[in-house]
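Intended use. Records like the one below are meant for learning the mapping from a protein sequence to its folded structure. Do not use them to infer anything beyond what is encoded.
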Amino acid sequence: MGKVAVVVGGSLGDEGKGKVTAYVLERYNVGHEVLCIRSSGGTNTGATVWRRKGAEDWVKIQIHMLPVGVFLPGGKHGYIGNGVYLNLDILEEELKLMHQVADGHPLNKVFISKYAHVVTKQCLEEDARKEAKQKLGSTKNGVSVAAGKKYRYEGTTLEKFLSKPGSGHIKTVFDTFYVEVVDPYEFFTEIVEPEDWNIVIEGTQGVNLDVNHGNYPYVSSGSFSTYGLLDGVGYALSPDEVYMCLKAYNSYFGPMRMKSDFDDDEFRQFAGEYGTTTGRPRNLSWLDTADVRRAAQLIQPTHLVVNHFDSLNWFAENGREWRLWVDGEMSMGFSDKAWVNSKLTRQGAMFLDALKDAAKVRKIFIGTGPKSSDIIEYR
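Structure written out for the chain above:
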């Protein structure tokens, strides 16, 4: 029987979901066909994945539209679901990149739901005007405008777009890169049979940016909890595993501020805390077990992954404390390193145990570098 996994952002985005998706795909790429699904968001969110090139070399790939799985070797096909907002120009660029990194190997196949909505030029222009007035921290990628049109019954589905004059170019692009536009029901009953395939749903954003559950109006245009991501597929799937992703601290954009914020330009430079999509410097805050507990209730995780865990060492190396807030209070400060010689320190273990208790998960993993091979099971 095939398995279904969902990779979910447990905070404000930028939790390393692309890396975790690649990790799960590698585990799932045994004995079954593999499908990587993108079911939410648009080019307002970005992912970074590393593809192995030869025995020693790796290629860093930053993407905004396609599922990360199609950039990995080994026949990992991709599907873009109903809940995604398509920027067709960026999609074309990434299809070309997919061809480039394949380096002579067969291309992974890409399928797109005909019900996904298209971000038009008008959406981009309107989003830029709106952000100039409201200043909510929009990436100005047109997603919020396209979402508004969708729910006002004024949107443009991919099926509708392709039926219009002037769509010949993107049709040619789809033909060139073996992209197939599909009806979700027919796709999952006639092409992909979930009981025979391993499926990984790659989340975008994070639950604290969910339009239904986040700090409104400082949210994004979608639902990013486990069940929101499942809904965006366009076909009912039941998850066997749910990976909740965090960083060892929070980073985020926009005018919103959090009680556990800290500002440290030196650490921001060290950790590369600038947006994949925008290049803007990110705001920084410490994790809070109260937030982790609330996010876990929305996500219902089986696994917790804490990325950038090794970055905590920077604070000890520079004579500063790193922190974990507990139930809304700044009550845990750490002065030692979290990770030494590929082993947890006592303070690193205390930090992870507090997060594991808050999330109520069976297993916890730590990310100690940018690649999927840098993910290590703790317990």
